[in-house]
Protein 1
Amino acid sequence: MIPNPKYIVPIFQYEKFIGSGFVVKDKLFTAQHIIVSSSGGFGVNAYVNGTFYPLSSPLALSSNSEIDTIVYKLHNLDFDSPLQFAKEDPIYIDNTKYKSMHFQPRKGGDCFYNETNCIVFKEEDDSRFGGLSDSRIQRGASGSPLVKGNKVYGMLVIGCPLPEQRIKELSDNGDVPKDIAFYNQYIKGSVLNKIFDNLT
């Protein structure tokens, strides 16, 4: 089992795992739909380095559903997160491997940490891009970062399998490796960086 870095955190509603998040300085970023879909956010906590932080008063939340981001301040953290937002967008279709760092559900409401290799596929719009992964990123990974080194290039908001015919088309064309089979959508790190800058 891969040990999780302190700055990648699971989010719970009471004792049930519902999503992932990540820490930049003393700010927790996650997908807004995780909080909204959990009975309006009642009983939601982030488990950060052995401590439960209630997520009740966001610093920022997006009025634009396409950005799907909510941010909380974490007080009295006892570690420094190495993560920072990439100010530039990733390069599309260059087969550079990025890393999805996230939690996934385990039976009984708990979770475990996992990492998945991804490549950046295409720009969806001004705030999102699509990525392709070599294994399925399960429900609960929403809100997790896509990173290269210590730079956050995106935050996961949607994941789904690619149809077999589409996988064949992409791999036959040489656009993607044959082991890439799952499509994910991310909020751009550059968009998240603007939110972060407005809070500091």
Protein 2
Amino acid sequence: MQRLIGHPIRNNLSKCPIASEIAFLSALGLLSIAGACAKQPYAAESLSLVSGEKPQVRVLNAAEQHEVLTAMDEVADGHHVVHSAAPVPQGVRWSDVPLAVIYACDDAEMAVVSKHESDNQCTYTIKTVDDDRGTLTVTRCDDARIYLAEAKIGFSVDRPDAARRLLDALDNQMRAFGRKREYPD
């Protein structure tokens, strides 16, 4: 007498090929139904339209614009902006020095090799494309000038033209950053 070991249904399915096919097809059917009922992704996740959805483009006319702006004003009643973003009145900000130096070096075809920054002074070691080294020292001023910059390029051979190019580029970058709006500290 032969003894069957294991689960009685499994053993019966292995003996009957039609029953195993039915079980396989049932499992496949359940999986496909579960997949069809899957939740569609949010539009913000997929950036695609849901089937049958038409893109909505709406331009407000003057009356509708007025209605929307009035609703926004009502929500903002009693709230006043304390510090609005604005360009710097003096034209430059001390906080822009580190980024302005990097961009100025790029404009003058130079690179910052090292830097030492403190509250009132920043010293940068500079290297030119001609492999000349130099220093750029930017010191904070307490008057309308905001900063004072000194550059020396070339230790063995003085390169005043390269130093002037770097200082001009720094001045241009500081003024460009000063025109950008920033919230006060």
